[in-house]
Amino acid sequence: MAVTDVNVIDGIAFDDDNKTLIMEIYDHLHFEGKFEFDHIVILQDKLNTYLWYIESKQYADIYPDKQFDNFVINIHFRYEITENCKKYINVSNQKLSVLNIKIVSYLKTIDTE
Fold first, then answer.
1. What CA–CA distance (Å, rounded) separates 110 from 48?
2. What pTM does this model have?
3. pLDDT tens-digit profile of 47-79?
């Protein structure tokens, strides 16, 4: 499972206390040079799958007895993200806030020892 598997949900869980569905994306790609644009398009395609999953309530197949008020999509980046990617996530968050959907990005740190 990875960002390039656009039709797959990489990970899913819930927080009962906050009625929040938590979804995970694992992004292992670089943002180097000309690939930056392609990478953001891949990420956009993956996020669109997650949004469809939320809007169509596909999560009810896994959690039939749960009602969710909030949705969090955690993106775990393997490599440092660019300013354009940060802007994309910020703009997406502004638009998705009306649907109670939030995107949170993390940079995976590698232990070199």
1. 29
2. 0.91
3. 999 999 999 999 999 999 999 999 999 999 999
